[in-house]
Amino acid sequence: MTEDNGNSAGRAIPSGRLARLGVFGKLAGGVAGGVVAEGARRLANGERPKIGDLLLTLANATRVADQLSHLRGAAMKLGQMISMDAGDMLPPELATILARLRNNANHMPPQQLDRVLAAEWGKDWRRRFAHFQAHPVAAASIGQVHRARLPDGTELAIKVQYPGVKESIDADVDNVATLLRVSGMLPKSLDIAPLLDEAKKQLHEEADYLREAQMLARYGDLLADQSQFVVPTLYSELTTPRVLAMSFVTGVPVETLETASQDVRDRVMHDLISLVLRELFDWRLMQTDPNFANYRWQPETEKLVLLDFGAARPLPAETGDGYRRLLTAALAGDRDAVREAAIAAGFLGEAAVLQHRALVDRMIDVILAELAKPGPFDFGDRAFVGVLREQGTEIARDRDTWHLPPIDTLFVQRKISGTALLAARLRARVDIRTMVAAYCDGVPS
C-alpha cells in the first residue's frame, strides 16, 4: 500500500471486461511498436538484435508499468510480485521501472468512490461519519485507503476496493500470462498453469475483505503480547466484502529508518526476521506480501506498524520442514546436504543441477561462506550478490532447465526475499545464525 502525497490525480479504474481488454490490447500494440522501432534502430547500427533484447528495453518496461498501474487489480499485483520477488537478481534498469508499480498512486476519482461506497453502505453512507476524507491517504493494486472520523471522535482507516477488480482477476491473470507467452519471455516447456491457478486463488482471497478482516484480527491476537509491533483494530460493523474498516494508526514510511541509529535498524530487522521465523515454524501462517509499504514506523513509540493481511495464508507442515532441513544443512556448512535439501524442497530442479552442477555448487559455496562469517550478518554488504547474479544468470540462459518450486514455497520465499531487501535497504546487522539455529535440528546456537 503506497502513501498518497496528495499530488496525484484521480483516474477512473477500468471496471468492464471490454475496457480492461482494450488496455491490454493497447499495451501489446505499444510493446510491439517499441520492438519494431528498437529493432530498426539497432539494424541501422549494424547490429543483429535478439527478440529478448528488443522486448526488455526501458521504453517497453515503462509502457508495461504505466498500463498495469492504470489497470490496477490482478494485472498490477503480478507486476508488483515480479519486482519484489526478483529483488537483487533483476537488472537495475528493469528493477527501477518495475518499482513504479509499488509507488504509483493513481486512485479513483470522487464520483467513482461515491458509487462504490453507496453500493456497500447505502446512499446515506456519509451520515455514519463526522468526517470522511475524499482524497485517499494510500493507494495500492486492489484498493485505496481513506481516513475517516466517527461521531465519537474515533479515527478510522477505510480500505475501499476498486470496482471490477474481483470480477477481472481470472481474465487479468490470463492476459498477463498471454503477454509473457507471446513475447517469448517464458519457454514453451515451462508449465505455469499451477502457478496461474494459485495466483488467481490468492488474488481472489486478497479481494475478499471479510477474509482479510479475519486475518487482521488473528494477527492482532497472535501479536498481542509483542509490544514492539502495532496491528490495527478491526471495525467489523463497517466491514463488507469490498470495504475494510480498521483503526487509523499513525506512522511514517519504514524507509525513513535509513537515517536511524545502527542499534535501532538492527533491532527492527531482528524483530521482523524473528516474526518471519515464527510465521514459518510456529504459527504455520504467514503474511506473504513483504511490500515495504506494509510496514510503518512510529518514531515516538519506536514501534513497527504491520499493515495489509490480505496475503496471509496458512502453510502446510512440509513447507516448514523443507526449510528446516535446508537451513540445518546450511548452518552445518554441508554443501552436498544443502544441494540435496534444495532439490527435495523444490528450490532447485534436478535438470538444472544435472546440467549446471559446478555453477550450482559455486552459488552454494558463496552463500555458505557468507553464513560462516563470524559475528552478525551484515545485510549492507552486498558484494556477494553480484557473484550470485552472475552464476544465476548463466543457469537461467538454459531455458530447458527452468523450474517452478511448489506454490507455498514460492510465497514463503517471496516473504523471505522481501524481508532481506528491507534489511539491505536499512544496512542492518543481525545475528542470523543464532536466530535460525533455534529452529534447526542438531545445530548448536
Structural class: alpha+beta
Strand content: 5-15%
What's the β-strand tally? 14
**Over the alpha carbons, how many angstroms does the gyration radius reach?**
23 Å
Distance between the termini: 37 Å
Runs in which pLDDT lies below 50 for 5 or more consecutive residues are 13-56, 69-73, 82-91
Q: How would a crystallographer describe the biggest sheet?
A: 6 strands, antiparallel
Overall pLDDT, averaged?
A: 79
Q: Count of helices?
A: 18
Helix content: 40-55%
Report the principal-axis shape.
globular
Structural summary, described in words:
The chain has about 450 residues and is of the alpha+beta class. About 55% of the residues lie in helices and about 10% in strands. The chain contains 18 helices and 14 strands. The chain has helices at about 15-45, 50-55, 60-70, 75-85, 90-100, 100-105, 110-120, 165-185, 195-205, 210-220, 260-285, 315-330, 335-345, 350-355, 355-370, 385-395, 405-425, 430-435; strands at about 1-5, 130, 140, 145-150, 155-160, 230, 245, 250-255, 285, 295-300, 305, 310-315, 375-380, 430. Strands 1, 2, 3, 4, 5 and 7 form a six-stranded antiparallel β-sheet that branches. Strands 6-11-10-8 form a four-stranded mixed β-sheet, with no helix packed on it. Strand 4 and strand 5 form a beta hairpin. Helix 4 packs across helix 17 (about 405-425). The protein is globular, with a radius of gyration of 23 Å. About 35% of the residues are buried. Mean pLDDT is about 80; it is low at about 15-55, about 70-75 and about 80-90.
